[in-house]
Amino acid sequence: MDKVKKFFKACYDGIFAGTSKNMRIALYVLFGLTALFLIFAIQILFWGLGYTDMDNNFTWGAWIIGDLGLVGLGGGAFTTGYILYIFRVDKLRPIINSTVLIGFMCYLFTFVFLLFDLGQPLRCWFGFAYPNWGKGVYPASMLTEVFFCLSFYFCILIVELIPVILEHKVLIKNKYVAAIAHYMHLLMWTMAAGGTFLSFFHQGSLGGGMWGALYAKTVWYSPHFFYMAIVAAMAGGTSFMTLIPYIASKILNKELVPMETFQLLARISGFIFIFYFVFRIFDIYKAVAVYSPMGGRAYTDMWGGYYGLWMLVLEIILFVGPLVLLNVKKYRDQEKYMVTGLACAVGAIVISKLSVLLHGFAAPNFPWKGFTAYGPTIQEWSITLGCFAVMILIYMAFVKWFPLFPHLEHDEHEAHH
Amino acid sequence: MKKIERKDFLKLGGGAVLGGLSGWVFSGAPFLGFQWLAEWTQDQYVPVKGFEKYAQAVSDSCPAGCKVSVRMIGERAVKIESKEGVCPSCHNALQLTYHPERISTPLKRKGNKGDGKFAPVSWDEAIKDISAKMNSIIAEGKANSIAAINKNESLNGQLMEKFIRSAGSNNVYYEPSLKSLTSSALGGYVNYDFANTDYILSFGAKLVEGWDSSADMQKIFTGWKARGTKIVQADTVCTMTASLAAEWVPVKPGTEAILAFGIANYLITGKRLNSTGEEFGKWSQLIINKFPLAKVASYTGVSEDKIKKIGDEFSKAKNPVAVAGKGACGVSASSAEIIAIYCLNTLVKSRAATLMKNSAVTYTGEFAGLDSFIKNGSFSMLFLNNADPVYKSVFGEELKKKMEKAFVVSINPIMNDSANYADYILPSLSFLETATPENQPVVASFKESKDTKEVIISLSKAIEKTKNTFAFSNGIDSFKISGKESASGARFSFNVDKIKNELDALDKKFASNAEYPLFMIPVEAPLVGDGDGLAFPYVLKSIDPTVFYREKLLVQINRETGKKYGLSENESIVIKSERGKLSKVYVHLTDTVAPDTVAIPLGFGHESYTVYGSEKGVNPKKIMAADVDPLTGTADWWSTRVKIS
Amino acid sequence: MEEKKIEVKMKRRWGMVVDLDKCTGCGKCSVACNQENNMPIFEDDSDVPKRVAFLELMKVTNDRDAKFPDVKTAYLPKMCQQCEGNNSGKHKAEPPCVSVCPAVATDVGDDGVVSQVWSRCIGCRYCQTACPYEARAFNWWKPEYDGSFKKSLNTEVSVASRGTIVKCTFCSHIWKRERDKAVAKGILDINDVSYTPACVGTCPTGAMVFGDLNDPDSEVSKLASTDRAVRLTNVIDDEKNPEKKKALLNKKQFANPKVYYLTSQSWLRDMMRFKKNS
Fold first, then answer.
1. Yes or no, beta carbons of A122 and B31 under 8 Å apart
2. What is the ipTM of this complex?
3. What are the two backbone dihedrals, phi and then psi, of residue A80, each rounded to the nearest 5 degrees?
4. How distant is the alpha carbon of residue B480 from its chain centre?
5. Cis peptide bond N-terminal to C69, omega within 30
6. Domains and CATH numbers, chain A
7. Can you list the residues of chain B whose pLDDT is less than 70?
8. C141 near A55, Cβ under 8 Å?
9. Is some CB atom of chain A closer than 8 A to the CB atom of C50?
10. CA-nearest residue of chain A to B569?
11. pTM listed for this prediction
């Protein structure tokens, strides 16, 4: 009994030792959310999805929004990796570990959310065992594509993350571990290349193809959605990957990553945003002029209820952030503008995903039915927020105990000399 | 040497484990394991297999006597099919037969009435106790204080009537139906020759939505469509009948009678037509004086020109017929209304409406009808023959009080609001479990439930006075005495003395009223009807979200009226009438309802009608108008003056 | 001696016609379907968006555009429309729901009926998202049958588990039943089997008709080609110009359902096409 108590005390100290009051409160909140997550996770898994606010009309809700957001924003991982390892832009090296970790967590929790969202999670392997392939290697179902690509890419992310874990100051002392870590670093470019290749497919399919392929649903149908989602992921993901370590830096009051790395990644993000913006305007035009009439409906008729045109307007407004603040050097160099730009970029992506899902499902399928709405239940909130809490906790754990920021270690190392 | 050996050992061990693991994975064992786990944790029920066959059955509990074919798997009935169409209660018979809340043994009340506490007793004990009580009442010379309320005039009802009348009581009543209302008003119920008419003027009768014999009307409707018969529907709400009709005449709520007066007025004065009814002269004087076309137009909302046009078309048709009886399953009409509408038929010498009677059914007892009995009568013993007057009558609360003081026996298969106030509940069978001269029972009787006919016969044999009423002892033989229909032979009379007060009341009712500016009228959801359907889950599955949604009952109000009162969709309101108030109703704004009207669904608000039917919505009858008609003895509950807040 | 060739290739294409001028909204089709297909039983089934039913009796009015008293009402029994899709330029003809299932739990049979195998379904609800008719129901709760209600269950339709999709299959289990009966009688030609789904069999006004769309003499074929025929939200039907229609089909598939509704009421026709009422 004593040993158990000692163990728990050691854990508690390990986590909470030397933390400020604010940090302690934050940790309590995060652990609380995690506990709620575990409780309601059991309820959902054992007693079914009846406890959510999803229904036969509003088929997907909080967890698929979570999936879309996580995968879309996690797309920064492959973009950053590609630019670092293939284009050899070494200025990005300080941020790559954090990026890989965030990417890994995003995809891990995508799977976690999906596990809850499936009516029969025990049958999740059917997607691999009975895939819906069309002609040749072209999948008939976008979800088959998602299953395979996401799983392979997740493996790649694991491989990319392993060196970060191995470089823990205790583990790295073992010479075998050090050797593995070293060789992995050399071969990382293969992972990056493979990851980028796979990401093109699953970003396109999960972010856009899934919706764009639904030819009977005028609110979503658009053949180019697949490509637009890839650009969106690259644009928004890079902003997201910049924003997270920046926030961490501010909280810890340490320079985890040099400012020029932040600025470089922000600049890259802003640049891709121009393409995304143009693509989006083209997308709206096509929807209004071509695809809505093809489905016999007026574009504006499909916007209404709670998720009205204000979402579209908000998204366009948020575009201004990255377009101006991240592209114009004068603004990018000022921290507060850069952060605003990054936040707006992430916001634009989040709003676009929300709009795809919320507005898409709310639009009536028959003119005698009205717009529907979705209000997540406590189970959905707990699981969604709980997963976010766990992600934050894992990130914090890595920041504290693993060499997530080689720049920092290097500086400290140099400082000791 | 040692080091190498350990390394080798580790390598071998590791390899073995890895090999074993991958072998296990690739053999598919874990996947099959998942599949087994999925099935074990879900444990779905597997229906019991059996030999498939079809059995025939005829309903003995509905007046139409629906004929059905029942698909059986082994001993289980799984589907009711019929080429001729079934009435809703017969369609629900399968769910009734297998309802988990069916009463399995006779029940005796424990605790206070209305508490719902009953204990099982044996049939012998129940019959003994009931017959002892009845015998003593008859011996005291108070046979007239024994009353019976029948659900309908099927054979069960006819047997009960015969039993109670031979016991010496005049207080046998039937729950109000189209037949009972028209019989009392006209001296016979109307037999419509719908197949040979070319013009139907319906006054609020929702012909295809459960009115009269639902199964027959569906077939008749098909015939009308084929022959191009013109239907003109006077109605306040645009229901299916109004929509399918050739013409919908929107009328202000409850004013169908006034419209009939107006058309009659026009046909008499404008077209100089005559009716052969008794006291026609007196009646037509009253109508012409009280209801000139201008007044009719303002009360009903139908313009004078339109009234004249309808009158013209009606009189010029080859074989027109006017139909009375507002509503679908729950029918309501005052005698003044029924008489006026029947008068239209006589004015145009319609060959499509004749008066009939059933030799074994008398709708009038000591009082003209059920509601006047509940209001003014008294009883020391009451038999409920599958009836639910506590729920269906506007005097349900008064009836509860009277039932608390009397000895009540209820014969029904599942609990209902009225049986909750009984002293004894005798469980009866669904028609699938009873035998008729044409077929054997399809399904074995449920536990100790008995055929209503046999219950009545056993009771009659246990009562001194009625020992010899029935010459037979089993249910099958009772079919021999089933009533025959024939022309009523009654002379159609306008009964002016009886109805003149009602004519005055109608005049006053539709004048404007500041305190209660709106009218509440009923609407019905398909399959729910006027309440019977709500105990069945597959009926619940059909209810539209504009009627009952997420446990909230919705009333329909016109958009303009909604704007006037500042109402928004789904808002909670309170409806008040002179008799009381209904809360926990919610608004559904729709233009299918006339302005200044609240259309409330019937059939909800049961207190104890199985877990499927109870505590859902509210029962509007509690606050509906309760003026008892002098001829039909039934409350004219159709339109009630209300206000909302 | 020459053996008689027994036809095993399915030539039938099952379709349905619902005459909305005859439908009185009695609801018997709904009860028959529920009974035949073992619909799960709930004490409170008023949470309509989560309701498990194959056939939804939709109440349609034009009061979105019309004011009292120019209003009309209709009941529209809606079940899975058994879409076909179209062979367009680059796409193989497939219903919108079949192409999206990641586990091939739903597929189109040779007779055009879209099947649903609940034991293969992983419950991702992608097919439900893709269906424009909201025809698919998900078992949000565990399907249960309170007590003795279990006795009226049909053995030909398996009870699904929670977390799977179920939908109308034009009662293809009845087809199988009729096929078995025919074979037992020695009739081996697969195309000699005809059947009636539960809903069509109960309709008291004959508003619902079922049959083989590939047979030009069948009642469904004749009714489906009349002027009154309209398909739910299948807007390409309004494109009368054959060249434009071909071009449109090359760009995108349309649902191409096999359920036709007949109506002489133009307001209803318009609403079924998202048009404003004339």
1. no
2. 0.93
3. -65, -45
4. 28
5. yes
6. 2-416 (1.20.1630.10)
7. 1-4
8. no
9. yes
10. A370
11. 0.92
